[in-house]
Design brief:
Nuclear Transport Factor 2, Chain: A, 5 helices, 53% helix, 6-stranded mixed β-sheet
Length: 213
């Protein structure tokens, strides 16, 4: 009986020991799998964020280079940055006027017309304007589409002497085509000049009132 008891006792001990070892192995495997999953998820998330930041930088570079082409009066460079589709779009508004250009053909016609304005000759004579993008407050990238908000400082020169400055708020929509970011839409509102015009109008009203007296 003693022998039998010891055998049974050893059997139960072996079972318990086996169960504990199995439980430990199970817990360790679960922890290991969870750790691997966390690392993979974190790594994917970090990589995705890095890719987005890379695309944001590429979008900003495209916009800046488009202004470099404009400042250098490089007409071929200007059109190269555009999406050549019917939905391409430009709208601009100021305190004096507004304009709307719909479709790539119309945009291209505008650029071709600008070649006849004598801009190159005027620049050589010191009469020109420069456009400086700044304050990129919003750059959002979603797949192959980007949405950008920033400002432009427009500086005007006559005989190479700065005569004035304007500022505008810009909204650009870009699309990625064959690995390159292209401009699809520009919405532009000039934010300077309104106070000056209001002052002139107020002075004019005051003069009229004084005249009536």
């Amino acid at each position: 009986m003693l022998t039998t008891y010891k055998i049974h006792d050893l059997y139960r001990y072996d079972c318990v020991t086996c169960s504990v070892q199995t439980l430990k192995t199970y817990v360790m495997k679960r922890c290991l799998f969870a750790l691997i999953a966390f690392c993979l998820t974190a790594g994917t998330s970090c990589q995705k964020e890095a890719d987005i930041e890379k695309e944001k930088a590429a979008v900003k570079t495209t916009i800046e280079k488009s202004f470099e082409a404009s400042n250098e009066i490089d007409f071929d460079g200007m059109v190269d940055f555009w999406v050549k589709e019917d939905y391409a779009f430009i709208s601009t508004a100021s305190n004096e006027t507004h304009a709307l250009i719909q479709g790539w053909e119309s945009i291209n016609e505008m650029v071709e017309g600008a070649k006849k304005w004598g801009l190159v000759e005027a620049r050589e004579a010191g009469n020109y304007q420069t456009e400086e993008p700044f304050d990129f407050s919003i750059i959002r990238v979603n797949g192959d589409v980007a949405w950008v908000q920033f400002k432009i400082k427009w500086s005007h020169y006559k005989n190479n002497v700065k005569t004035g400055e304007d500022e505008s708020l810009e909204l650009y929509i870009l699309e990625k085509h064959n690995g390159d970011w292209k401009i699809a839409c520009i919405s532009e509102v000039f934010t300077s000049g309104y106070e000056a015009k209001a002052k002139v109008e107020d002075n004019g009203s005051d003069d009229d009132i004084d005249g009536d007296k």
